[in-house]
Specification:
3 helices; alpha+beta; single chain; globular; Nucleoside Triphosphate Pyrophosphohydrolase
């Protein structure tokens, strides 16, 4: 078995985006990748060298969902990691997986999502209830999502 210490993880930021109806209604944005069939996920992306995770959060949201008009509600207290399945690992070389900083954010009232960005990553998006996320989320991200969502639930945010 390979030593996890020798794995090469890409620094990454991820956003659990709540609709502007929060807290009256708790719906979470998920989007379907255009490059992996039936792969729904939260918006996320790499943290550039020298960039802070919050800077990457705003940049990635603008690049992926066409808006950075958000309010940060909470930040997951640590970093979480996952490994890519073989088909994804080939595309993401030299990385074996990602180490992520998660933020729980709310869209500001009037914010418009537009996934037809300059370099589109998503083909469609929807807002779903937390308990329905596993119906959509790609298999290799479920463990991380479950851990992070459990934390935000236990802290009383969702």
């Amino acid at each position: 078995m390979e030593d996890k210490e020798k794995k090469n993880y890409r620094p990454n930021v991820a956003a659990i985006v709540l609709s502007s109806s929060y807290p009256a209604k708790c719906e979470i944005l998920i989007a379907s990748r255009i490059d992996i069939k039936d792969a729904w996920q939260f918006p996320q992306g790499g943290i550039d060298e020298g960039e802070k995770s919050k800077e990457a959060l705003y940049r990635e949201l603008k690049e992926e969902i066409g808006t950075d008009e958000i309010e940060i509600i909470a930040e997951y207290p640590g970093w979480v990691s996952y490994e890519f399945p073989p088909a994804v690992a080939q595309k993401m070389a030299p990385y074996d997986g990602q180490i992520q900083k998660y933020y729980l954010v709310k869209l500001k009232k009037g914010a418009k999502i537009d996934i037809a960005t300059q370099i589109p990553e998503f083909g469609e998006y929807k807002f779903v209830e937390r308990k329905k996320l596993n119906d959509y989320i790609t298999f290799f991200k479920r463990t991380v999502y479950k851990k992070v969502l459990k934390y935000f639930k236990e802290e009383g945010y969702i």
